[in-house]
Amino acid sequence: MINVAVLGYGTVGSGVVEVIEKNKDMVNKKSGQELRVKYILDLRDFPGDPYADRVIHDFDKIVNDDEVAIVCETMGGVGAAYQFTKAALEKGKSVCTSNKELVAKHGPELLRLAHAHNCNYLFEASVGGGIPIIRPLNYSLTAERIEAITGILNGTTNYILTKMEQDGADFESVLKEAQEKGYAERNPEADVEGHDACRKIAILSSLMTGKNVDSEKIYTEGITKVTADDFVYAKAAGRSIKLLARSRVLGEDEVLAMVAPFMIDKSHPLAMVNGVFNAVFVTGNMLGDSMYYGRGAGKLPTASAVVSDVVDCARHLGRIIMCFWEDKDAHIADISGVETAWFVRVKTSALQQAQAALGAVRTLEVPGRSEDRALFTKPMKESEFAKKCGELGSDVLGTLRLY
Ligand code: HSE
């Protein structure tokens, strides 16, 4: 029997207990031994809960119990979760987590600590919820030189953009509705400003390069400026709008990474990822493109990924599962020199001036709209585009990068 402790009995933590219980035949068979949830750590009590007798409030009881071999950290945050993870790893207990913030911030240190104590730190659930993507990058694509990763890594923003597209609604009203339905947090900043997707692409980029990609150095733009008008033009142009988290290897130790809304051609597989679904599009130098698609959030999908890590830890007790993510920082290229083609919506009166300034390759008029027009530029440096747009001032009504 292998004893497991779950830290945090919230949405994901209770899902972990549920998955271990509901799928126990399969989970135990694949672990090679029976898994038992011995402790659940939470500040609260859960009277009436079938696992109420396992709930404790003192982490020391877990860390000092030699019977506990695997800890699931489903608390979130980088405070107590960081301290508890370090303490568990130092005692040789493997830790499985859904905590992308902690993995993005302290991943290499925690991996190093795990390996020094002959145990594992696994984080399949930290990116893409239930979608297997960490394991494919670590185990399956090992013959590949991964060249680029582009993902729709945030369910909340993908839900909002999909609703804006389908209903012709504006950002604020869809966000409000998403909050009422519980799809968006009451404080939606981490999602709508792109920070959540940024942490996730930092983790994927670190696995892609084997070096540490610091999330704080990644250019990040959210979806708050995307308008219903942008979607009118996207539709007319045969495009959609998606929040993409992108990362590309530029050279030895150098990576270009960014998070921003892009106007994407409808024929691209990522344009077909709708609602709360996520997808990760990986380009390898031998395989070419492959895409990993599924539920990027939610109690049971995320818990399923955590439990898949528990099974992996159970199969590898006393052995290290290799993960190539060094402490050394990758160099993150400044995006100002990157060449990007743009969609630009301008006042109709400024179309000719904008066309001349930006070197438009195509303009677009939507029947019935007299106030604005759109143009599509050739690829140009981000810095050059920003300068020219600045000169056009308030004649520019909206801009989006093209993908
Ligand atoms: N807030 C995240 C999302 C949850 O919307 O995708 C999963 O990480």
Can you walk through the features of this model?
- The protein is α/β, with parallel strands linked by helices and 403 residues long.
- The protein folds into 3 domains: 2-126 and 299-315, NAD(P)-binding Rossmann-like Domain (Rossmann fold, 3-Layer(aba) Sandwich); 134-295, Dihydrodipicolinate Reductase, domain 2 (2-Layer Sandwich); 335-402, Alpha-Beta Plaits, CATH 3.30.70.120.
- 36% of the residues lie in helices and 27% in strands.
- The protein contains 14 helices and 19 strands.
- It has helices at 11-22, 24-31, 59-63, 80-90, 100-116, 134-140, 155-167, 171-180, 189-192, 195-209, 228-236, 299-315, 351-358, 382-392; strands at residues 2-7, 35-41, 55-56, 68-73, 94-97, 121-122, 146-152, 219-220, 239-251, 254-265, 277-284, 288-295, 331-332, 339-340, 342-347, 360-364, 372-377, 380-381, 396-402.
- The strands form 3 sheets. Strands 7, 8, 9, 10, 11, 12, 13, 15, 16, 17 and 19 form an 11-stranded mixed beta sheet that branches. A 6-stranded parallel beta sheet has the order 3-2-1-4-5-6, with helices on both faces.
- α4 packs parallel to α5 (100-116), α7 (155-167) packs across α8 and α13 (351-358) packs antiparallel against α14 (382-392).
- The longest helix is centred in the first third of the chain and has 17 residues, at 100-116.
- The protein is elongated.
- The mean pLDDT is 97.
- Bound molecules: L-homoserine (HSE).
- L-homoserine binds next to α7.
